[in-house]
Design a protein that fits this description.
Strand order of the largest sheet: 6-2-1-7-8-10-9
Strand content: 5-15%
CATH superfamily of the largest domain: Vaccinia Virus protein VP39
Shape: globular
CATH architecture of the largest domain: 3-Layer(aba) Sandwich
CATH topology of the largest domain: Rossmann fold
Helix content: 40-55%
Structural class: alpha/beta
Distance between the termini: 59 Å
Radius of gyration: 25 Å
């Protein structure tokens, strides 16, 4: 269906951006305007002009409609311990540094308790905020002498409702270790529920990064040690990003950190931050001024922020760069210093060089393919699924029978919740290698995610047929049988997995089990079996 042809269409697009920061790209307009039409039909509104006026007016009815529209416009996808590089950086460097700082501050100021304040901005359904709570608990198991604040906000009220419940399907644990899952979550219906001890340490509420006045001491969004805002700015235009960055800066205490998704701040003015570069990621730190460490100069600037500043940022003289392929050219990706490999050239560079030596066309063609595939793998690893799909499509142009590229596209679609597309690409992968178990694992996860447990079991059995030593398949089948209270079959599957784990080195990484070591899994499976005896 083509975009709505109406003089109010562009005005509505700009209104959505001004209210939410969301930039509707040209290629997304047909789908977005289908959703807008569905809202108009629900309200029995026939003209787009009338709907625009409803959204524009400062009325309770307008506020309610914005909530409904935002639910349709935002479909955030998240999972626990997303981006292993950044999680490792948080666990080993940033959080210990912040904890040590607050310990020293407690002594200097003779306070009864040290404090730590963290904000997950754009938290979606809560996985990131709970990941932070788990990391803090691992570093500070005894928190009696600490005031710890972990906040999660998102513009989508339905996502916040789900975050407060803390109940997730197995798909949310795809990079989460089995031992941690057992420690911090309990089986609940068809999924897993966060332990109440961790859930109580996180506060969730709706928040609009563009509209909200920030800092906001009443909501504890001030004097923050750490802000995580990952895979949010990819949906914003440049002006909206600039406004939110200023708000984040004002919300941080001097020395506090901001972590975003990789390459999200391309072409942004960042001089007020000190850029810290680690192999795992680049992060941004509010500079420590000559003021007291606990001073809060941000509060005096609060009145300068909010939607008024956003309107100024969107002046006619400012160039607005839409988020999309153009906003992240291949040569804008950081080098290996910030988590990206620098050993390959960008596709555009290779395209230029390919004319230099016609006799090396095969090598150039292979290099073009490898560059695109590597870029797609990095983007998928960092959760930038839409951009990963673009890079994988480019790889397929250079190799139309690439198993790896098609499998990557299946993974990206699954991560985006586009399960039918994921299935289609899995079938394409299977046609390229009928003996590979990779696509079957993904198909099993997709079936389980959609609640088709019988299909999931059938696929897992096929994996075992193809590879009788597929430990993960036995464990996944055992988990399904356990949820069905089929203790005999569950015990059989887990016992087989235990026997296989005993045959390999404890340091061996077990595939499709969140990179868990065989030794850790062995102990975990023993605990599960002991519960059934």
């Amino acid at each position: 269906m083509p975009p709505i042809q109406d003089k109010f269409q562009q005005a509505l697009t700009e209104l959505i951006a001004a209210r939410t920061g969301l930039q509707i790209r040209l290629q997304d307009q047909p789908n977005i305007y289908k959703k807008i039409l569905s809202r108009m039909q629900s309200l029995k509104i026939s003209e787009l002009a009338q709907y625009y006026k409803l959204l524009e007016m400062p009325t309770p009815q307008s506020d309610r409609e914005w909530q409904e529209l935002i639910i349709l416009l935002t479909t955030g996808e998240s999972y626990l311990f997303r981006d292993q590089g950044q999680i490792t950086l948080l666990k080993n460097k940033i959080l210990p540094e912040l904890i040590d700082y607050q310990k020293d501050l407690k002594v200097k100021q003779v306070k009864t308790k040290a404090s730590l304040k963290i904000w997950s901005a754009g938290c979606s359904t809560g996985e990131e905020a709970y990941s932070l709570a788990i990391l803090v608990h691992e570093l500070l198991p005894r928190q009696d002498d600490w005031n710890i604040t972990i906040l999660g906000t998102d513009i989508n009220p339905e996502a916040i409702k789900k975050a407060k419940k803390g109940s997730y399907s197995s798909w949310s644990f795809r990079t989460f270790g089995a031992e941690l899952q057992q420690q911090y979550f309990s089986p609940h219906r068809s999924g897993w529920e966060i332990n109440s001890k961790i859930r109580e340490r996180v506060t969730f509420y709706p928040g609009n990064l563009i509209q909200d006045k920030l800092p906001n001491p009443l909501s504890d969004i001030c004097d923050l040690d750490l802000i995580l805002c990952r895979n949010v700015f990819i949906y914003f235009d440049a002006a909206a990003i600039a406004v939110v960055l200023q708000k984040f800066y004002n919300c941080l205490r001097p020395g506090g950190y901001l972590i975003t998704g990789h390459a999200e701040l391309y072409n942004q003015e960042l001089t007020q931050f000190q850029t810290r570069i680690w192999p795992e990621s680049v992060v941004y730190q509010r500079r420590i001024s000559s003021a007291e460490p606990n001073a809060n100069p941000a509060r005096s600037q609060t009145h300068q922020l909010g939607s008024q500043e956003f309107k100024l940022q969107r002046s006619p003289t400012q160039e607005i760069k839409p988020v999309g392929k153009e906003a992240f050219p291949a040569n804008s990706l950081p080098s290996s210093e910030v988590g990206y490999k620098s050993t390959y050239k960008t596709v555009s560079e290779l395209d230029t060089n390919s004319q230099a030596n016609s006799n090396a066309s095969t090598k150039i063609h292979l290099a073009l393919y490898q560059a695109s595939l590597t870029q797609a793998e990095i983007l998928l690893r960092d959760g930038l699924c839409v951009l990963a799909l673009q890079a994988a499509s480019q790889a397929i142009k250079y190799d139309s029978i690439s198993f790896d590229a098609y499998y990557l596209m299946a993974q990206a679609h699954a991560n985006l919740g586009q399960y039918q597309e994921a299935r289609n690409y899995c079938q394409r992968v299977i046609s390229l290698d009928i003996y590979s178990i990779k696509p079957y694992y993904l198909l099993a996860k997709v079936s389980e995610e959609e609640g088709d447990i019988e299909s999931a079991k059938s696929i897992l059995k096929k994996i075992i047929y193809l590879d009788p030593k597929a430990i993960a398949a036995y464990l996944d089948l055992g988990a399904i049988y356990a949820r069905e209270n089929d203790i005999i079959r569950s015990t059989k599957m887990r016992s087989t997995a235990l026997d296989l784990l005993k045959q390999i080195s404890p340091d061996t990484t077990v595939e499709y089990q969140s990179h868990s070591a065989a030794g850790d899994l062995l102990l975990y499976v023993k605990k599960l079996l002991n519960k059934n005896t």
